[in-house]
Amino acid sequence: MALAAACALANPPPHAYAQDGIQVAVKARQGASFASSLSAPCLGRFGTGTSLDFDFSGQKGPASTSVAGSLSLLSGGEAQALWGSLVLDPGKVFGVLLAPDFDPGLAAPQSASILSLRELSISLEQGPFSFETGYTLANWGQGKAFSPADYFADIDYSSGRPERRSKVLFRASFFPGSLSRIDIVAAPEILSPGIIAARAYGLVTDTLALGASIGYKTGVPGTSSSVLGGLELGFDLPWFSPYGEAALRLPLDGSPQFSEIKSSFMAGAVAKLGSLTLLGEYSYEPQGSARHRIFGLASYPLDEWLSLSVPLSLYPDAGALSFGLTLAAADLWGLDIASAALFSKDGIGNWSMALSSQLSVGF
After folding, report:
1. Does residue 186 contact residue 284 with C-beta atoms inside 8 Å?
2. What is the pTM of this model?
């Protein structure tokens, strides 16, 4: 029934618009961290971060807008970690204003201020149709950590927990029924190849969800454009919900051959054992450099306010591993408090750790 409810919420009946008005949510966060190699903990880096998260949404009849992001002041290890992540993943630069200006050739600064956008979008509903444009998420696929059928997914694993990053998208949707939708999404070529794709998704029964998609991806210098195809399958059962995805990519260089098809697969499940929630996903890319990837997450509420979670990421081909422990308190004297420890091993056997604590309050 959860699948039906989610799909129904995502497909509002014609003209059932939200109430006109503006909603603003603001959250202040203060955090501190320590990161170090386990072989030399005395050379660790301390860091602090002060952030103001904002979430603005407005509705006027069939039109709505959404703006979400954060303004942060980072120092020490936090500023250096941000700089290092931008060097390794230049795609993070988009949607970010950074002072000092990012230059991969310069040493990491001791302090930095950053304005980062999570979403900036405008949408319009007209009967069974809706249109959206801006910096947002496609939210295709079934996977949380791996999603080969979401051609637009750009997933960040640096925090130990997978998090999708927004892209500039143009979306047109048609809702033929209350539990089905058809999307056409286009992403221009900005720091990554351009993509246009169509997807049909819906519920066959209260417990079975199916999706199919096809798309076209432009090439970059040195690579050819390609045709994309994907399938999604998900079951929603009372205590165990398996799901999976499969995607194919056929390069269009010269005369395409079926032997050139690149494939990727994902299988996952969510299980509930009393109050304990377990999530596991496995990704397999036969032609990829990291053919096997595994992600797991265990979550358990200790009481009404406290919860414990344990994430795990494993890359057998590279010999890399990371796991962590997070203790979070929600609405404790009006505050949200979280402390986390993350341990990682790289491909050559070096271990590192990162400890962090964060306090936040909403307005």
Report:
1. no
2. 0.86
Q: Report, as an integer, the average pLDDT of 311-320.
A: 92
Type of residue found at 251: P
CATH architecture, range 2-25+48-301: Beta Barrel (2.40)
Pull the structure tokens for residue 258.
Answer: 């079926």
Give the integer Cα–Cα distance in Å for 216 and 52.
Answer: 39
Tell me the residue type at 314: L
Instruction: Give the Cα-Cα-Cα angle 208, 265, 272 (nearest 5 degrees).
Output: 50
Query: What is the length of the chain?
Result: 363
Cα-Cα-Cα-Cα dihedral sign, residues 85, 90, 94, 98: positive
Mean pLDDT across the stretch 109-121?
93
Pick from 147, 193, 189, 180: nearest CA to 293: 147
Q: How confident is the model at residue 178 (pLDDT cuts 50, 70, 90)?
A: confident
Q: How far apart are CA 118 and CA 141, in angstroms?
A: 20
What residues does each domain of the chain span? 2-25+48-301
The DSSP output letter for 102 is P
